[in-house]
Amino acid sequence: MNLFEGHGNREAKIRYLDADFQILSPGSYVVCAMTGKHIPLDELRYWSVARQEPYADVIASFEADKRAGVLPVQKRQG
Predict the structure, then answer these.
(1) Four-residue CA torsion sign, 60, 44, 40, 7
(2) By the 8 A CB rule, do 51 and 33 touch?
(3) CB-count exposure of residue 15 (10 Å: 0-12, 13-18, 19+)
(4) pLDDT digit string (tens) for the chain, length 78 residues
(5) pTM for the full predicted model
(6) Structural domain spans, the chain
(7) CB atoms within 10 A of CB 21
(8) Cα–Cα distance between 54 and 26 in angstroms, integer?
(9) CA angle centred on 17, ends 47 and 29, rounded to 5°
(10) CA 14 to CA 22: how far, in whole Å?
(11) What phi and psi, each to the nearest 5 degrees, are found at residue 43?
């Protein structure tokens, strides 16, 4: 049995760390904080340690950073 088998179709509770995560409560997926999409644990690649949130993809992660105001301000040329 691998790490993700045997936990049914329920949400896992995760502690997000730098370049890793710790499973606090077994499950087969987490829910994207921006889209609400279910993310299978073996496909989880993007999260925020500071906000303890998972993201479905890089775009959702970028949008969360914009929402949180953590991106550097860029000046428009013109």
Answers:
(1) negative
(2) yes
(3) exposed
(4) 345 555 679 999 999 999 999 999 999 999 999 999 999 999 999 999 999 999 999 999 999 999 999 888 766 665
(5) 0.82
(6) 13-68
(7) 18
(8) 16
(9) 50
(10) 6
(11) -110, 0
